[in-house]
Design a protein that fits this description.
Length: 766
Amino acid sequence: MIVAVAVLATVSSAPAVPQFVVDERVGNPAALTAIAEEQWTAMAELTARVIGAPIPHAPITVHIVPGRELRSSEAGTSRYGRIELRTGASEITTALRHELGHQYLWATCPAALDDRLFHEAFALIVSGELTRWDEADVTTPQAVRVLAEASSLDVPKSRAAIARLIRESLTDSIEIPRTMALRLATCSSNTLWRPLQVNELAPAERAYSDAFVVVNRHSGELVTFDGAVDTAMPFGSVLKPFIVAGAAGAPTLKPVHGDVNWECGDALPSQLTAAQALARSCNGYFLTWGRTTPAAAKFGAYGAMLTALGLPRLPNAMSEAIGITPTLALTPRAVAEAYRALALSSPTTIAALADTARFGTLAGLGLGVEHVVLSARGASDTNGASNVHMARAFKTGTVRNPQSRPLVGWLVQVTPDHVAVSTFAGRQPRDFAVQAAQRLTAIGRRAQERRVGVQVFGLVGASQVTVECRGVAMRGADVVQTQAPVPLSSVLEDSEFICLGAPWLARVGGSAPGSSTVAGAARRSSSFGAENTRDYAGTFARAELPASNASDDTTASPRALRARRGSEVIFTTSLGAYAAGVAHQEGGMLHGATREALVRVIAHNAYEPRHAHRPICDTTHCQVFKGTMHLGDDDARSLTRSIPYRGWLPFALGGDAPWEKAVDVQEITRVLGSNAAQLRLGPDYVTFIRTTDDTADESVRVRCEVIRNALHLLSCPTSVAPGPNTWMFRGKGAGHALGLNLIRAQLSAQSADSLLQSAFGPAPRL
Ligand SMILES: [Zn+2]
Ligand SMILES: [Zn+2]
């Protein structure tokens, strides 16, 4: 009763609403007047609630007329006493409410006349537009940047940014950000108006921040990041998978009825396995487990990795490990690195997380269905493009305040190529999971992200190579100390050797100082001596070479045979990092269309079965690779254009520069056999006569490329002059003269597609 009287008193003392004059070309005058009056009353009540009393204003008349000079992005505009609306606009009511927000401030708060940010923020709040903008697309730092650079605040991009900032400071009981409420209170006083600043809406110091970071699983490259990726935050449930994967054996437990921690989603099974507990992120499971096995809270073998990645200490109890007690913190980037190692060492744990979207914490959002990009050449592809059919794995985490309001939400996504970690201040994972998933999907489609394997160091041997990890070196779940360079052969095993947070630094023992060409190595002060150090961003593993099958090619040198045999060292990285590395070696000086053609050929060849069931090698037998490099934007664009050919596509430096080389007769005999004569040189084949032991002559036809390799000639020779002690070979250009001639391409003005067509013939219709 008393309450009702008080409300009546407030309403009766509130200023009258303006008189609204509606042009009927805008819409039904009676209906629009009713909306306007209702909106005005709501705004008066809102300010009364916020500052304790209504703000008085003089009587006014507001004309509502059709907009004549509206920009395409505007649904309405106004000046004092006059609102222009786009006729026929679908959101005319929202536009009217928005413009009434401006009218209300002009009427009640003339001091705020020039405060554009305050005006726009107020109009967005009272019009109900805050939820309209898809604010998950813009992070807090991005919003601050947009507003700092915006020339107008009354455009969609700016409105979305303001909405993003305001939403963070609103709760059920706070209807207007405090900084704005304080100003509203001074509207009718004579205090000097202080214009609202962007950073007042987004305080600089906050424990919980938005972040998005994507790491390539194969190379470890930071694919993209923004926001507070290096800010340590309490991690909620995000580390639960490491408890399961690190344990010797995780139990199957019976849910405890009536225990709030066991309220773990619909249709809870009568027995919960660790995999089911992970998908449902069931606190009850982990707390019950921790009571019988307290040590499980220390992440088992993964404890050392997590502390190496920045966890201040191991948890003292299960409640700390699963984030119910938010005493420990980790950065989003460290969480991404940890999951990269987990995906490699415990695929079954990742597989369990694929159920999160099916019947776990993200069920019902439509996230379970996914098209995994298969290799263009199908599942039989030996150099595994991402052809593992795997549903996306998700892990959610929510850090709550004592009132159970979310302080920050975490979302981890694991795909065949990536680990992505998102944090969102003040939100639960379910609220932003779809947007975060879509953002990763867009990145995941890029060809440069796919896995590529390379047989490396086959010529020199693993014992001649030393490697060093400046991050955290891991094999399986174990941290391996490699602060100093170690011989690769001493650490090479069948399971992958991975360096978290940094590329491997490798040095080939035999290389002379200054001979290394990897750009960027020089700026490092490596214990190796920078000039010899190459980046290998990826993992090393051993794959036993098959028993040497005797080559029928008697002309090949031992070195060439070794190159063709491959290497027991398998290096795995991303296609982008590999292609950039090869392009640097094979055509570092090339640019434009030639570079594009080369990069596309390199990427195509990366998946060709040049070594039967093994990946390609790193020598001239395949394509020269001496370490990964960062893929530039132009090369990334090139990789989006595929190649319509099949099979290995040869390329060589080429050009037309003449050369000559004298070869000893002994060498001729070794390669061609004794008494070789009548050598005839064709563009593809060389024919000659040689005498066999039983004195019969034999005609031999060999690919010119074989002879060129064996005799170390720059290209297939065009002439030969046999002499008593040496044979003089002459030719033009460098390389095997097959396929793409890079120097000639660079001198032409052809597009990349026509260069490829000249080299490999017309594109077959697909
Ligand atoms: Zn506005
Ligand atoms: Zn090869």
